[in-house]
Every structure is written in C-alpha cells, then in structure tokens.
Design a protein that fits this description.
It is a single chain. The strands form four sheets. Strands 1, 2, 4, 6, 7, 9, 10, 12, 13, 15, 16, 18, 20 and 22 form a 14-stranded parallel sheet that branches. The chain has an eight-stranded parallel sheet with strand order 3-5-8-11-14-17-19-21, with no helix packed on it. The longest helix has 12 residues, at 52-63. It is mostly beta strands and 420 residues long. It is built from three helices and 31 strands.
Length: 420
Amino acid sequence: MTRRHGVPRILVAVLLLAFPAAGAQVFAPRADLANPITFSVTSTADSGPGSLRQVMNDVNAQCLRFDIHQPCIIDFKLSTPVPAEGWYTIEPLSPLPVFMADDVTIDAETQTALTGDTNPLGPEVFLLGDRAGATDGLATAGGLALRGVAIGGFAGNGVTVFAGTIERNYVGLDPTGTHAVPNGLNGVNAKSPRGTITIDRNVISGNRGSGIDLDSFSNTFTISNNRIGVAAQSDDPVPNGTSGIFVAHAAVFFGAQIEGNVIQFNNESGIEIQGDGVRILDNVVARNGNRAIRVVDSSGRSVQGPTVEFATFDAQSGQTVVNGTGAVTGLLSTYQQTATVYLYANDAAVSEGQRFIGSSMTDSQGHFSLAVNADLRGLWITGTTDRVIDFHDFVSRNSSEFGPPHPVTTDPARRRIVRR
C-alpha cells in the first residue's frame, strides 16, 4: 500500500522527552501515584481562558512530572444553549500543542452528561481542523485516553498516540457519522509506540490515508468493535483512502488482536499486516478495493488461508456442512500448535468475510468441519486460520489471509460426514 507519513511536530515532542533541558531529572523512579488533576474546557474559542488550547498548555505545564505519576483529566463544561446542530464545534486556527505528559484523559462524554444527548447520532464535541495548518489533530508523546470526540479536517493524522485508549470517537467524519470530513493522513496513527494501545467502538472513516495505521509495533494492541470505511449508523460507504487497518513491522509476542470490526469499502486492503503476532478474529471484512486481508510475515511470505473442500446443504437436517483443510493442531516439531478456522459466507465468489458463520478447530491432520443451522445455498464459503504455537518461553499468534471461496451445493456426491 502507499504509506502516508506523519507530521514532523510529533518528532519534536519525542526529542524533547528524550533530551530535556540541562539539569532536568529524566524519568526518575515514581514512588507515588498522585490524585488526578482535572482541567475543564469551557469555551469553543481558539485561545484564551477555558479554551482547549489553553487547557492543553496547562496540562503540559502541570502534568509532566518525573518524581510522581501524575494523571490529568480534561473534561468539557461548555455553556448552554447548545448550538442548533446539536454539538459544539472547536476550530483551531493554528496547530494545537502536543501533549508531553504520559497520562492524559480527554473525556468529551462529560459534555453529554452535562447538557444531555443533544446529538443522538454521535458526539457532542467536534474538533474541526480545516484552519489549523499542517498539523495532526490531537497528538501526544505519551499516553492518551480519548473518548467522545468527532475529529476531522486536519491536514495530518486525526489522532497520533504512543499508548492509551481511543474509544467511542468519530475520526474523519462529522458528528452525524454520515459525511466525511477527511483528515489528510490517517485516522488514528501510532509509530514506534511505547505501550499498550486499545482502539474500541470508534467510527473511523473518510480519512485520506488508512483508518488505523500502526508502525514498528512490539507491544500489545487491541482493535475491536470499530466501524471502518462505513457510516456510523449504516453500511453506507465512507471509505478511507488506503487501507482500513494497516500494521507494519509487527513483532508482537504478548498479544495483538483485531476482532469484531466492520471494515468495508476502503480503497486498498481491508486489513494489511506486515510482520508477526497479530490475530484477526470474527470481523466483517468485505467490498474493499484490494484484498480483504493481506498478511505478509517477517520472512516476506504471504500467510495463506484454509481450503474449503466441501460445502453442502442437507435438507433433512436443515444444516449446511462445511469441510476442509488448514493448519494442523498438535505437535509441531517439539512445540504445541492449535489452529482454528474462522468461516464466512459471501454472496459471490470472493475471498472476503461478509458474514461470519462460525469457527472450527482443526485436527492433527489439519482437517476441520462445521455444521451451520442454516440454508446457505447460493452463497460462497471462505475462511481464515488462526494459529497459536507455544514455544515454551513465548507464544506465537498469527492469522492468515482468506482462503479461496467454495460454493454451497446440494450434490450428495460432494457431502462429507461431519467430524466429531
């Protein structure tokens, strides 16, 4: 895929942390966890008391501590009346500060708690970057928890993080979740992250780069229950310009998972993984411009999916029975391997996942079998394989691309008994 690089100002933040002023104490042991400090956004103005910009500057001044762990919270207490559209718009006129502290929470859902659900379609706070210049939207050199914000229109990435939790936001869309307000690069971006990242229950669509872009990743991440490339309340296309999810240079040994997402209509791959250690489980991945899932391991080889050999409907039992072969379960050399095939039904002969129908563990010969209580005639079955290998000192987890599609038939000669 075509990579879109981040905005250089985040590199400045990293250098400031790595090379502080002379005499500064660098990451001294933190003996205490301080009580959180809360800062309130009370104005939609670009600057001045109560503005988001001023609050971010205050956080940088008071929350970057090397003697103790100092969590800081930004809440929203914007005054009534609520604008007629149902949300408040904050439109920076220049780049916002980069967060330097390593434990910052931005909680725009506090505005909803204060003034009510005035925008039933999405967030009550919209961060619009069309006049901010060549910059990311929200960027941090440490950890960030972000919830309840719509972010769009920035020239760079919508959100750039090194660690943290991104949940229940709209990134690349207006607060209704129906119209693209593209960020110029990626929706959510993390490069060489230093901690765990969780990206959950967001709508990340309409960005010019990838919806989510993770690079040089060796720590745990979870990408779950997001809508990527579609509208918030429907499957109407709002594509990202490249991939839905792109993970480069992955070498994850402690668990990385992409699960339960809807990923459709993106201009390149739905999910693209370069490297090892990423599990892809039970997603809807369909109608993207390139492959649904592309996985290239650290040796440069594509990770092939399972082969469906038979898919037949039995009118007597009312079941569709699927049989095939994938990776084996059992000893691999001296190591224990388990392999599970995740199966999907599609309305055409395509290697993608429109509808998840179930999973089956393979046996010692690599065979799998699944009986589905449904008539799937007219559909095509394909699947992915998830492998877990216990190497004693660490556990390897990897998922495959989709295998070739196979039609569901009623030909008795092509039926096979379900293995128990």
